[in-house]
Structure to design on (193 residues):
């Protein structure tokens, strides 16, 4: 809900809200700031271990559908230190689920730019090494189970296409956007990192 509301604001209103937030943060005692940072990092570490709700749902559903799914696969490309959310080795497909932090300045504009740059580099490395990248852009923080199952149907359809005919290098980035509870497939115009 918050991501949707933020996206609907004018740039001026976003700036005003950002300044109010910064002012509130600056007025907090240092001990409270440290505790909030600690709790945030703990939550991020926990989420990286167990995965997001969407990651877990897709992992379980794809496994049930007969796919060999590697959850949070590391070192897919030698010496790259890349981690892929879900990897299907039989069809050389990496599935990345990108939450709002990949599109909105939740942690600040600089962090957002670094995240987006990292995402582009990662998908370029994977594609250059012969993998398909199925990137799910989950703009909303969470989606209903009904919409998650709609997303699953789209993912299964794309995986079926990949199994039938492995795409050429120019078609190895597949994007699915989930926003306002709706899932839709989008075809990127430019694959270059």
């Amino acid at each position: 809900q918050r991501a949707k509301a933020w996206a609907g604001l004018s740039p001026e209103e976003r700036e005003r809200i950002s300044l109010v937030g910064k002012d509130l943060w600056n007025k907090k005692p240092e001990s409270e700031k440290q505790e909030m940072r600690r709790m945030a990092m703990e939550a991020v570490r926990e989420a990286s271990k167990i995965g997001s709700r969407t990651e877990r749902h897709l992992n379980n559903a794809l496994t049930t559908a007969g796919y060999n799914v590697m959850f949070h696969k590391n070192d897919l490309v030698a010496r790259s230190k890349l981690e892929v959310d879900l990897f299907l080795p039989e069809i050389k497909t990496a599935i990345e689920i990108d939450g709002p932090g990949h599109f909105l300045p939740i942690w600040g504009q600089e962090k957002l730019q670094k995240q987006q740059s990292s995402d582009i580099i990662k998908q370029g490395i994977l594609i250059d090494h012969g993998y398909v990248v199925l990137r799910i852009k989950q703009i909303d923080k969470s989606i209903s189970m009904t919409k998650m199952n709609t997303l699953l149907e789209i993912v299964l359809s794309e995986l079926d296409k990949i199994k039938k005919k492995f795409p050429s290098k120019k078609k190895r980035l597949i994007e699915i956007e989930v926003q306002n509870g709706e899932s839709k497939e989008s075809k990127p115009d430019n694959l270059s990192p």
The radius of gyration is 18 Å. The longest helix spans residues 30-50. The chain is about 50% helix and 20% strand.
